[in-house]
């Protein structure tokens, strides 16, 4: 039953049920169970038994799952410690006196997200911790913060070569560019050259900036923003106790970020082997680095808070444990999403969709937009953009290589953009889940409010790929996509009530 239309059923069941019922955990379990039953040749008893094995296998993965789960729990504990110490309140009052507007509050996570481009997981979680007190105090909804985190993280990481994404993608494009006539380019040069062809990532970043700058909200997001603004006055007259220090938030998070960067360099072999930065990022164990940094940050926080009596020694572990409990929901959703991803990999969902592209008898001019759409569907269904890259980059390069080497990099750019688009829309995407966790936002609220924004960026990017296919000029396609995005936003602004 693998690599057939049946392989689409489990992710569609999980995603559809989540959108309809808002019960994410139950929906993911349905997706896992349905996929396991298909893999077991429709034996219900065997399929259900296999479902538990799939979930347990994800929990027990020592290289990825275990450090990720432990880090999320540590982050929840750290967040609660910062809140109980008064650090979040102190930072919030500092933000009220230095960040004067809602637009300014939203620009903070956008600018920080653009600056923290090392890794998307790190981006979502670290920037969320920094920005949440600021956006809360200015009446910005958690759904809007989650959107800014999500839309910025992957979009920046995929455009910057000095990131975990850049290192991975350069390893993926090295063989295709040599095989199809652009072997004169190094992987780094090729990566930089295909950046202008990634219309979706560029459009997504521009969309975040423009909606904040022009004060535009649409779709379900508008209701969340209106509700947050109505409660902001209550937040502003909260406790005005003295002694709350902004440094009680800044120092633990600075320790977390600084130690993470150190261990990324250390696990990547920078200090021992004097590798280049790109190679270090490719070899680094990012999740293990986050785990080490989390443990050290908790120790640092204890030393910072207990002697100054910000938190009593006897209460430290209790507060930390309660914070860990707040992350359990996100951990369960993430584990189940990984399980769905494992199921669709075994079913060959990606290979089935890729086969549709290969067998389609379409004009070459239509292939950029087709690759973008199919890559988006694949990432949406599987919840992974990296898995989509691995499958679709060779296919896009092979199609382009049959005609002209000049088409290879733009076709790969269309694949990259589509994969990020699907990742942004998918409720089972790990980045989507972690953006919800970073903003402390209900997961389905984030999915529903982000979807119209992602579809707008994808629509304008699609128009750009259509123009590129017709004119064979990458920059004209990019300008077309960006111009259309600006025109649509101005139209929306004209028809909306200004706040």
What would your notes on this structure say?
This protein has 499 residues and is mainly α. 78% of the residues lie in helices and 0% in strands. The chain is built from 25 helices and no strands. The chain is globular and about 70 Å long.
Helicity range of the residues? over 70%
**What is the overall silhouette?**
globular
Distance between the termini: 53 Å
Number of strands: 0
What's the tally of helices?
25
Instruction: List low-confidence stretches.
Output: 237-242
Profile the largest sheet. none
Mean pLDDT: 84
Give helix and strand order, one letter per element, not per position: HHHHHHHHHHHHHHHHHHHHHHHHH
**Roughly what fraction of the amino acids lie in strands?**
under 5%
- Computed structural class: mainly alpha
């Amino acid at each position: 039953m693998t690599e057939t239309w049946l392989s689409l059923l489990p992710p569609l069941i999980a995603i559809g049920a989540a959108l309809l019922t808002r019960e994410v955990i139950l929906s993911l379990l349905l997706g896992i169970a349905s996929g396991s039953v298909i893999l077991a040749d429709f034996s219900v008893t065997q399929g259900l038994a296999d479902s538990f094995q799939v979930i347990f296998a994800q929990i027990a993965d020592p290289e990825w799952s275990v450090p990720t789960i432990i880090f999320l729990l540590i982050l929840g504990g750290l967040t609660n410690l910062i809140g109980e110490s008064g650090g979040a309140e102190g930072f919030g009052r500092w933000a009220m006196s230095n960040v004067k507007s809602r637009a300014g509050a939203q620009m903070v996570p956008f600018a920080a997200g653009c600056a923290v481009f090392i890794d998307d997981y790190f981006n979502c979680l670290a920037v969320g911790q920094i920005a949440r007190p600021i956006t809360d105090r200015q009446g910005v909804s958690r759904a809007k913060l989650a959107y800014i985190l999500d839309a910025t993280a992957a979009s920046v990481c995929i455009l910057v070569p000095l990131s975990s994404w850049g290192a991975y993608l350069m390893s993926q494009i090295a063989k295709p560019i040599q095989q199809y006539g652009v072997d004169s380019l190094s992987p780094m040069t090729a990566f930089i050259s295909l950046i202008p062809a990634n219309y979706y990532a560029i459009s997504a970043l521009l969309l975040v900036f423009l909606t904040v700058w022009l004060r535009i909200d649409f779709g379900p997001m508008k209701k969340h923003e209106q509700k947050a603004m109505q409660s902001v006055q209550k937040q502003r007259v909260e406790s005005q106790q003295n002694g709350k220090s902004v440094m009680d938030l800044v120092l633990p998070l600075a320790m977390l970020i600084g130690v993470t960067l150190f261990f990324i360099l250390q696990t990547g072999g920078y200090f021992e082997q004097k590798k280049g930065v790109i190679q270090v990022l490719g070899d680094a164990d990012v999740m293990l680095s986050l785990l080490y940094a989390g443990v050290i940050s908790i120790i640092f926080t204890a030393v910072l808070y207990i002697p100054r009596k910000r938190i009593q020694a006897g209460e430290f572990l209790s507060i930390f444990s309660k914070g860990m409990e707040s992350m359990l929901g996100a951990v369960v959703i993430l584990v189940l999403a990984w399980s769905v991803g494992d199921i669709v990999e075994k079913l060959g969902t990606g290979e089935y969709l890729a086969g549709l592209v290969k067998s389609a008898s379409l004009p070459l001019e239509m292939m950029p937009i087709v690759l973008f759409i199919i890559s988006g569907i694949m990432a949406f269904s599987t919840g992974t953009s990296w898995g989509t890259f691995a499958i679709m980059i060779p296919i896009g390069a092979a199609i382009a290589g049959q005609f002209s080497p000049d088409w290879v990099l733009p076709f790969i750019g269309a694949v990259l953009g589509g994969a990020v688009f699907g990742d942004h829309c998918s409720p089972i995407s790990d980045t989507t889940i972690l953006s919800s966790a970073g903003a402390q936002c209900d997961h389905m609220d984030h999915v529903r409010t982000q979807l119209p924004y992602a579809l707008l960026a994808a629509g304008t990017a699609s128009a750009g790929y259509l123009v590129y296919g017709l004119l064979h000029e990458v920059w004209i396609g990019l300008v077309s996509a960006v111009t259309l995005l600006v025109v649509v936003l101005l139209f929306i602004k004209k028809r909306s009530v200004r706040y």
